[in-house]
Structure formats: structure tokens, C-alpha cells
Amino acid sequence: MSVKSCQQLHPLDSLATEAKVITLLDKMTLDEKIGQLSQLSGDGGQVSKELRKAIKQGQVGSIINEVDLDTINELQRIAIKESRLGIPLLIGRDVIHGFNTIFPIPLAQAASWSPEIVEQCAQISAIEASNSGINWTFAPMIDIARDPRWGRIAESLGEDPYLCKTLAKSMVKGFQGEYLSNTNSIAACAKHFAGYGASEGGKDYNTTNIAENELRNVYLPPFKAIADTGVATFMASFSDLNGVPATGNDWLLSDVLRDEWRYSGPVISDWEAVPQLVTHGFAFDKSDAANKAFTAGVDIEMASNCYLSYLTSLVSNNTIAIKKIDDSVKRVLTLKFKLGLFESATTLPNNQNNAMNLQHLSIAKNAATKSCVLLKNDNQILPLSKLAITNLAVIGPLADDGYEQMGTWAFDGKAHQSHTCLNALHAYAKDSFKIHHAVGLETSRSNHNDGFYEAIAIAKNADVALMVLGEEAILSGEAHCRANIDLPGAQEDLIDEIHKTGTPIVLVIMAGRPLTLEKIIAKVDAILFVWHPGTMAGPAIADLVFGAESPSGKLPVTFPRSVGQIPLYYAQKNSGRPPSEDKYLALNSIPVRAPQTSFGMAATYLDIHFSPLFAFGYGLSYSQFGYTNIKVMNKLITIGSFVEISVTVSNIGNFTAEEVVQLYIRDLVGSVTRPIKELKGFQRIKLAKGKSTEVKFKLHTDELAFYNRHMECKAEAGHFNVWIGGDSNATLQAEFEVTDEK
Length: 742
Ligand code: NOJ
Prior knowledge:
The protein is of the alpha/beta class.
């Protein structure tokens, strides 16, 4: 499980690099220095006169959004051969969940709870992107996301700091490899620093107000973890954090990131976020915005040109010290040296043939398989047996749509290269059963029920209706938030109609976020929640539906019953009046004119149960796993040591299957209140049917540490509960005690 730190540079080379950076810096004019702090957008497969001139004059340090290899090579050639100092370019791109081969969206990858899979997906993304000349990706996005209305939850690794930081380390390792200078390594970027996921009301770009204690205990840990293990760059968030937009937030970018964490890589702004400081009402004009962003700690401006236009005068009038400019330029040049760009910045064309090869596709299929979550499986309807089926009705707008299955932010994937469900099911069926297909609705948002008739007709004659519904790709991702997270359009009506036929329904849901499923859950027999699984969605889903593989994904985020419950996450605080079943029942049946205080008085709603529809960590298997015999080896430990906990996991079902064994703790009393459960360990294991194994966890007290009222991160002495099980509702419990060091 442990991820080695990504060495950006061989230690012996770091002194030599520093010397090279200083030698180069000494030769640079102020304009050339400011050029290194400027990232411009590419021209989409061509080099405009203006861009050529800007590069020649040393006014550009990096380019975003150019993916045509010949064009990138030409841009690099101009920078190296035609600019005065020959400094190569950083070429950035949002390689979020794949480049040519599209892997499951990050939220789906998080559902695999597999650091290995996440690392592999990032590594292949880096191979394919670097073969196209890209040397910098703006990933991983590690904003803790607890509001499913927020479209960017799709790009996140879910609601939990421990799961997020563990997987983020693997993603960075996959992108950056052992050394950034390796041919197929690309620089990663920790984004969006920080708090973006807490946008009020789940509306993108919205204000965030996060108390420092919450910020440090929940939102910052993944950033700190990958700063410590060598992520090459950081991106400041668009959002306003406690009244100071992150892009101009000197406390965040300088006090925390530079001074406290000693982070030395460059920080980039988000797209046009520097001039947006004016829109925020935080800067008077673009010059003030350049000053505020730069002074706060943004080294590189993305897409806009406030730095190019105003940094020179801000230096000449002594608003910004040249030493600060030099420090930022050093960070950029150091990254370019670490990436080996001064040795070779251009890319050989023939490596691109390697894209989407069999190995890449098989890793994509495995990732998709392991990230699907089985939410419901009444009467073990799944897996379907080929032998028991004569006619299979495949219904829904997402069953055969190579584009939508790729999900959000999959710029470079091609729809025609996707393997759809329908195709894969045909390959599965061969001649053994017949497949009838009807979309039912033209798109996931459609309200026209003209297609219902055909869908109902094929369902009536089928043994099973496999419905592939959900959200098309554009309904999640940046700026695509939803106030209502039911199945969109007339999909619920379509389910109603198919339900009326009496044919059992297996519902496959593709979506970029948790959906509220209460209205349809009783009408379907099984639900396989597959997120947006990417290029290999079809073969992965077919394998799961027909039992070649057992589902093993687990939810990285809580599924609410209704949007009214949001925010709803497992690691809540207890409050002084926690909800309970009897209080809920009492509150739910209050007699008319009952006295205000006679029922309940608990932190819950009158009109909905306090539990989620599906809890964090939840996911069914075709098998069943029993958890017994939880043991704490050393029930009394001192701060600075380890507690060892083990459990027996038994496969008591009829399938060989994988299970994600999860360990949660509760710190019973703290100097600040602690969540009722916190994930502190997990292991994905494979067990043959009938077999048992002992799973061991070793937990250092550092993992129990949290920020107290004085913003010191410390583990505190006291009593802890520990649970191990297959989801966050795990009940198998033990205890241990932590005492102060002697
Ligand atoms: C805006 C997004 O917020 C950011 O995540 C992305 O990297 C940039 N645009 C560049 O596309």
C-alpha cells in the first residue's frame, strides 16, 4: 500500500541543476523572466504569427491545449532554436483520466479503492500524452467533494481525506514515474488549492467558507501528502476561500504551502483566474490583480496576460522585488531541467503508434471492472446466466454511445474507439441468445417518450431488460452542476413503463456523480452503478453482468436519499443530540398539535430518514464476505508507536471474488470534537469461495493526529474504537487506548 516518494530528480543531479538554473537566470532580461511566468493557449494545430513571435522573443514559458505533435515539435523548435536563450517550453494539458485510452473518471477510479489501478491508469495516460509531446498534466484533482450536485465531483477522488490522499499519491507516481526526466514521465499538478470542493450549494466557482480546523483536517491533507511525496506543481483554485480568493491568498500559497510545507515547485493559476480577481472584487484592475496573485504566490499565469502586461512596471516601480521574480523563474526553470527538456524537448513521431495498444486497453478494462459498484441485487438476479436467457432487451440511450461513456474532461478520447455495452453484449451472446435494442429516449435528458413503445415491446418479449441509463457526459464536470440529481429527463418514466411489463430489470447507471435513486429503486431488481467507465466500458460491464467477474467497487462517496440531506458524508460529527431510530420514528409520526419538545429533539429531518441511501464504502459482491475475530494486538500504545489490528475475512458465498476490507476508527474524546468514524486503512483482497484469511493493519499514531484549536497537528491520548468491515457501517468493533509518551 505504501507509495514511494516520486524523486523528481536524482539527488546527485540536484546541485548541478541549481547551478545551471542560476547561470541561465543571470543571462535573462526582465522580459524574458516574465515570459517564463506566462502560459498561453495553443492555436489548435497551427502556429499563429503572434505565437511564433512571442516564443521567439522569450515571452512564453509554457503552452496549454496544443495536442498536435507536429505543432508541439515546431513550438519547441522555435523556443530552442529561435529564441535568444533557447529555453524549451512546458506543454500542459488536462490529462485527467486518460489521453487516447480513456480510463474511468477519477471518481470511478476512487471506487476501485486500488492504488495499483490508479497508478497504472496514470502511467498509461502519461505514456500516451508524452508520446504526443505533452510534458505536464493538470491532475490529480484532489478537492474533497461532499456535494454530489457539484459537477466536478466526477473529477475528484471522493469525500474522504484518507482515501483521496492514498490514491492521489499513486496517481502522481503514475504520471511522474521514478524520475521526471524519464521519457514517459509528465509533471503532475495538485489542484485546486484549496477548498474548491466546498463551493456553497454545490455550485461551481462559488464561495467557500471553511473554518481553519476543517480546512486542515479535511481539505488540506491530500495536498500536503502529495506535496511531501514530490508532486511537481500546484494549481491555485478559482474559488474564494474565507473572503480571500485562493489565487490571491498569501496565507494559503505562501504561509502554508511555502513556509510551513516547504513546497518548492511552481504554482500556476487556474484559467484566467488572475484577471478574475477583479471580478471577485479583490483587485481594482488587472495590474492590481497581477500584483496580488504574484505577491500571494502564483508563479505562472494560465491563459490570460496580466503578468505579461504588468509585471515589468510593477518591478520598475518597486511594488514587486526582482528577487521574487527570480525565485518564481527559478522554480519554472528547475522543473524544465528536472523534466530533461534541455536535453530533449521534441518528441519522436512514431511512438504515437503505441497508443491504445492491447496492454493499455486491458488495463482500462480492468480499471472499469473494478470500479463498478453493485448497489442492489435482489434474488441474486445477477449474474445473468447465458443458458437461462433466450431474449435480452437492452434499453437506454447510453447502451451504445461511445462518446457519453467516456465522461467529462476526456478531450483526447475518440468516441468511435470506445467499446460500448451493446457491442460487448453482442460479442458475449454470439449465437446463444438474442439481443434486442431500443434507446427508449434519444438522450439521457430527453423528455420525449416517442421511443417508449419500442422499448416496452422488446421488454415484453425478453427474459430480462438490461437498462443502461444515467447521465450523459456533459451533465457533470466543470460548470455542470445540478440542483436535482435524480435520473434526468424522462428516464424514471421509462423505468416505470418497463417495470409494468413484469420483465425483471437490471439497471446499469452511467453517471458522473451519485444520483438520488429512491423513486426507482423498488422498481428494479439490480443496480450496477458504473460511473463513466471510459473506452472499455462495454467489455467490463458485460463481464460483470454475466459473472466472468464479480463486482468489487465500493462507494468513495455517500449516496443521499434526497438532495435535502446534502451535505451528507459518513465522517460526520456526533453533535450533542445525535439521531437514532426511535427518535426518527417518533419525529415521523408527531400527532397534530403535539408540544414542541415531546418527540425526539435530534439532529435529523422530520420527513426523511437520517441515513443515506447507500453509505460510503458500500458495494455488493456476487459472493458474501464474513468478518469475524477482530483482534487488537497491543491495546495500550504510546504516542509515536503502532497499533496492530487484525480480522478474519471469509468468503462465505459461491464466487471467487475481491473485497475491499476497510478499517475505521473513532477517537472518543478530543480537545476538538472528532468524527463518528474515520477511514484509516483499507486493503483489496481476493478470496476463493470457502476460504478465509487474516487481514492485518498497522496504524501509527501519526495517522490518529488532527489539528487542534491551536492548529497543531497532534495525536491525543485517549480511548479509540476501531471497526473493520466491508463498508462504513461496519459493526465488528474493538478498542485500544493511546497514552502520552513517557
Ligand atoms: C479550468 C479548470 O478549473 C482546471 O482544472 C483546468 O486544469 C484548466 N481549466 C485548464 O483547462
